[in-house]
Amino acid sequence: MKHITLFSDGSALGNPGPGGYGTILRFGDKERELSGGEPHTTNNRMELRGVIEGLKALKEPCDVEIVSDSSYVVKGINEWLQNWIKRDFAKVKNPDLWRDYIVASAPHRIKATWVRGHDGHPENERCDTLARGVAEKMKRG
């Protein structure tokens, strides 16, 4: 099984407001960048959307380390998701995206790792740049 590192970050200007995500997929010395956004969204939605889109871009089952500065995403994946599923996402924010995450993550072995944001982590900084760029573009229309 290939080992992939998925770096991701999300941004929303206004929270809610125009938002974007940036994702880097790394396999060995190869990298692929993804980005996208929505005109009216939240930071947490974009953080999670970046992970989902990165996973959907993988063409085969992989061993994936997700690296994010979002405690919401990392704890959601590592700690909270199983209980949310048992409760059928009652009183959980963004259940649509968490259901999308479950589908996108199903073929893979996932481990999520938290990194401090805006702390000089090169891939996190790049993902932030991608995410903010899309959010700014959405804001301009």
TrEMBL record:
Gene3D superfamilies per UniProt: Ribonuclease H-like superfamily/Ribonuclease H
Keywords: Cytoplasm, Endonuclease, Hydrolase, Magnesium, Metal-binding, Nuclease
Residues that hold Mg(2+) 1 according to the record: D9, E47, D69
InterPro entries: RNase_H, RNaseH-like_sf, RNaseH_domain, RNaseH_sf, RNaseHI
Catalytic activity: Endonucleolytic cleavage to 5'-phosphomonoester
EC number: 3.1.26.4
Localization in the cell: Cytoplasm
UniProt GO molecular function: RNA-DNA hybrid ribonuclease activity
Enzyme class at the top of the EC tree: hydrolase
RNase H type-1 domain location: 1-136
Coiled-coil ranges (or none): none
Amino acids binding Mg(2+) 2: D9, D128
Cofactor details (free text): Binds 1 Mg(2+) ion per subunit. May bind a second metal ion at a regulatory site, or after substrate binding.
Keyword Magnesium (UniProt): yes
Cofactors: Mg(2+)
Stated role: Endonuclease that specifically degrades the RNA of RNA-DNA hybrids.
Subunit relationships: Monomer.
Family, per entry: Belongs to the RNase H family.
Name of the protein described by the UniProt record: Ribonuclease H
Lineage, broadest ranks: Bacteria, Pseudomonadati, Campylobacterota, Epsilonproteobacteria, Campylobacterales
